[in-house]
Amino acid sequence: MNISVELHQTDLLTVNGIIKGEIDAFTAPTLREKLAEIDLKENLQVIIDLTDVSYMDSTGLGVFVGFYKSINASNSHMELIGLSSRLKRLFDITGLGEIMDIQASSGEVKIDETV
Amino acid sequence: MKPFDYVEIRVPAKPQYVSVARLTISGLANRVGFTYDEIEDLKIAASEAITNAVQHAYSEEEDGEVVIGCALYEEKMEIMVADHGKSFNFEETKAQVGPYNESEEISFLREGGLGLYLIETLMDEVKVHQQEGVTVFMTKHVGIEQVDGNVKHISS
Predict the structure, then answer these.
(1) For the domain B5-147, what is the CATH superfamily, name and number?
(2) Is residue A99 within 8 angstroms of chain B, CB to CB?
């Protein structure tokens, strides 16, 4: 199991990110490093697609909290999109769902294969 | 006959093995008969405890091991995670762990902030034991939240 993080600067003030895979103790540092590469500046919009994130725990939440702090400090904006109901729930039960700009995926609940 | 099947997993105290243990627990939970959502809850809760153990063991010595004991009952699963790398007598250790209160020095568990909170939220019962390392004991019952959803219709 691994993680892939793609970042595309689509215009001067927009960065689109796509994260795929599992975010846990092993992969979270990779995600943190990748997000730190974004050159944050005023009014920058960072939109991160989590549609293909099949697993996440507090290590992942920690990365997003850290990134969210940097975002706020630089007056940029972060939006998390495509969250499965599982991921949405994780943000909600920790109270982060009310603080961050989060969009659940519009489609049906994605059922991952479970062993 | 013992009232439960016992499976013990030992992994090196390294972050890359957290997902291995998680997958194993997912398989065991499936065996017990948990729903998809319950299994996802178990995966997160167990990962939180294992991650804590890995990070704790990491700061102490490099070649530690994390021991994860899983007791599979008819309608519940107990998971015990210890960061000291020694095998335990499941029942004996289980008897030693007790409820903790907020003021106890389990601050390391809270270091990451949300780990213990998630375990408490996602599991039915959580106990922590601190003696030569830390042991987290947690229980989840099948269908405790969605009883109605588990009612089977005989005729259709």
Answers:
(1) Histidine kinase-like ATPase, C-terminal domain (3.30.565.10)
(2) no
